[in-house]
Amino acid sequence: MSRRMGPQSMPKQYLALAGRRVIEWSLAPLLDHAACRRIIVVLSRDDVHWASLPVANHPKIAIAIGGDERADSVRAGLTAACVQANERDWILVHDAARPCLAAADLVRLFEQLQDDEVGGLLATPVVDTLKQVDESQRVVQTVPRERLWRALTPQLFRFGILMRAMTHCAKRQFAVTDEAQAIEALGLRPQVVAGDADNIKITLPEDLVRAARILDASGQDATPE
Ligand SMILES: Nc1ccn([C@@H]2O[C@H](COP(=O)(O)OP(=O)(O)OP(=O)(O)O)[C@@H](O)[C@H]2O)c(=O)n1
Ligand SMILES: C[C@](O)(CO)[C@H](O)COP(=O)(O)O
Questions:
Q1: Site annotated as Transition state stabilizer: where (predicted)?
Q2: Ligand 2 site, residue 175, Cβ cutoff 6 A
Q3: What is the domain-level CATH number for residue 212?
Q4: I want to staple 47 with a disulfide (CB 3.0 to 4.6 A). Which of 21, 24, 43, 165 is the partner?
């Protein structure tokens, strides 16, 4: 819905960023990695932008139609993947709105989880002092930051476990904001893998400016795939 982006000329994943659209940057590391054999791009049911992108006809990519909430879109993607996926296949879920994923982080995620039975996610440790406040923004307490991490994407899980977890939460109307939370609801414990804090999500308008700076500094090429 992009509520936090405020009014924009188009959905945030299609906004122009450093010579490409946001979603093209988000897809690039997945398209480049040999282990990502098939990519399902989940579109909004009223999407009118995807078909005009150069990447729309990429042979690795198929599309599915998403739902009202992020979790509904993830379930739609999993259902589309179901046709060719085996129970133990790895499934990577990434936000279209995260255009600054470094190839090295993707490699680290695969390497650190390759022998894991559950799977896990890229995340960054909380570095600031944390304050919990009341309704009038007065500090109630300082929350210890040790062992607190910020969840990023991609998140990597076995297909069978992730499908069960997302279905389990949907049936109970338990709204999850990431896949790891659904896995946790099954009583399992996803592994965090340290990722670069530059892997930001385009959530607020100022994030576009920051993403442009990050991509510029990384020297990535904006030539279409
Ligand atoms: N129904 C939805 C809602 C969101 N997303 C995707 O989930 C990712 C993270 O979305 P986020 O920025 O957290 O949420 P939005 O709903 O897009 O924005 P907001 O919460 O500000 O409304 C984005 O790549 C977005 O395209 C999705 O696939 N299906
Ligand atoms: C999955 C996610 O990007 C991890 O940070 C995030 O939870 C997406 O949803 P949100 O609406 O920004 O919480």
A1: 4, 12
A2: no
A3: 3.90.550.10
A4: 43
Domain that holds residue 129: 3-218
pLDDT-above-90 percentage for the chain: 91
For 2-129, list the strands marked E by DSSP: 16-17, 20-21, 39-43, 61-65, 90-93, 119-125
Q: Which of 144, 95, 88 is nearest to 121 (CA)?
A: 95
Which tokens is 87 given?
């129970």
* pLDDT at 3 > cutoff 90: no
Strand ranges, E, within 52-158? 61-65, 90-93, 119-125, 130-133, 139-143, 149-158
Give domain status of residue 131, yes or no: yes
pLDDT digits (tens, 9 = 90+) for 167-180: 999 999 999 999 99
Tell me how far the alpha carbon of residue 181 lies from the centroid of ligand 2, in angstroms.
Answer: 11
Does any domain span residue 224? no
Q: Is residue 223 part of a domain?
A: no
* Structural domain count of the chain: 1
pLDDT tens per residue, range 80-97: 998 888 999 999 999 999
pTM of the prediction?
0.95
